[in-house]
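Subject: Predicted fold for Protease PrsW, 224 residues

User T.R. writes:
Posting the sequence so we have a shared reference for the thread.
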Amino acid sequence: MLVIMSAGIAPGLALLSYFYLKDEYDSEPIHLVFRTFLFGALLVFPIMFVQYVLSVEGIFVAPWSKAFISTAMLEEFFKWFILYYTIYLYSDFDEPYDGIVYGTSVSLGFATAENILYLIGHGVEYAIGRALLPVSSHALFGVLMGYYLGKGKFSTEGKRPLYIFYALCIPLLLHGSYDLILLTSDQWIIWMVPFMIFLWWLGLRKVKNAKKLTEVHVYERSIS
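User M.O. replies:
I've generated the structure tokens; pasting them so everyone works from the same file.
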């Protein structure tokens, strides 16, 4: 069990540390990042229950509806909801890059709890594959969600609702696409490799953009 717990937790903590340490200015309080991570982990249980009920009742049977509604929409909406109502509205969210820290935190909390449960049920031999695909993809969905929340928080009033909308819809569409590949293709690895390369490219590009936005924000704050 110790091996499974270690293998389940390690990828999420490694990725969270990576994105957290890229915050070069006012690093976020560890207790707040951990709290957000814990909220994400706790989301797994109600979402799994709802997904189980939807599956038993046969409400979403088509692959696209399973991918985009019973998986992507449920998971990304509740992560977005947690971020918006526990982080976005409060003063600790004071730089654009903070969105990425908290976005990856809630997503990796969810991914870590899900990963532990999967490894308990299927065995530790799946740990590497899980780290490279589900855990990494959740981290990158969190990067995108956090990026647009961060951009929205420090944009003009007119643009703010659009970025908040992007923060939900872009991760949802990418998450649904990820699951649709797994559900519909026997040769899913052929499609998944370029998809993950694209996702990493997009996520790291948003990290770079968020750091630039933060530099501008810190400069403007220092001279005001």
